[in-house]
Amino acid sequence: MDRIRTCLELLMIADAAHEAGDFGMAKICWEQAAELGDVEAMYNLGVLASNSGDPKAAKTWWEQAAELGHVEAMYNLGVLAREAGFLETAKSRWEQAAELGDASAMFNLASEAHEAGDLKAAQSWYQRAAELGHDDAMNLLGLLAQEVGDIKAAKSWLKQAADLGNAWAMNNLGNLAQEVGDPKAAKSWWEQAAELGHVEAMNLLGEIARDPGDPKAT
Asked: Which among 25, 55, 142, 171 has most CB atoms closer than 10 A?
């Protein structure tokens, strides 16, 4: 009980120090908590090291946290491996995180499969990520559906992503509407995307403004 109380006290002090910008004190307290076996302290030390430009130390702390089942640590180790050019190691880490329900890991696995041309695996991972609410996965599922001519599925996935505030999905819904001959809906979606700062949507709206006679302006 004393060990648990001590660990909780250290974490409270560390969190308060970190929030106040006293990273030195935060590090000291997290290190002491990590020595007591606290996995969140190990993870936070990894984040602190990463933000300080020390990926080696970050990797060490995240490895310790990952060994104790910390999902975000597994994901971050995958990112470090990918940045270092170790794709298979990255995929292995992301697969560990994905099996524990990490949607971002699923999305990264989908992206790697997509880039490699394995659309079946990509769609499977995007689907799993989308089911957990990953809006970028929904957007890309919409694009994959559109590529094979499944407009209904494309619209459904893009709409789900747009409802979550995904500007790319809004822009893509505009493109889809334009493709099926609904310029009014296209303009509406581009306007929503543009309001969120989407450059491509802004450019498309600019084209409409420059050419009032264009069918897209109706």
From this structure: 142
